[in-house]
Predict the structure.
Amino acid sequence: MKATNTMTLTFDSLPVNEGFARSAVAGFFAQLDPTVEELCDIRTAVSEAVTNSIVHGYRYSQGKVRLTARIYDGRKIQIIVRDTGCGIENIEQAMEPLYTTDPEGERSGLGFSVMQSFMDTVRVTSAPGKGTTVTMQRVLSSLADEETQQE
């Protein structure tokens, strides 16, 4: 399936850029006229993925985060957040609720759980020393579908 529109951003792994990433993705997907709830869900999932790259992938050191957003068939969206940080040794363990690599920090270990609750699919690939890629997908409702259901 070929994307009908794609956006790619690369930015420094600074905590202040998490808000930039959320806003940029929301602006990009606004062309699909998502519901307010869908837009909030997308922003939250992106926030969690980017924060994971900054906090866990780079452990607050300098690096680059690459974010790609794609639209397929006018309603299916894909978001990819990629870093070249330390990677994840055990993805299954990392995706367990309350697991964190930053126990002394203010991290709850719910990032992947939050992403999964707001997106249809979340796939994580990683290699120690090479980085992590989080791919999230969701099919947005159309406002026309919602209006029909409300009648």
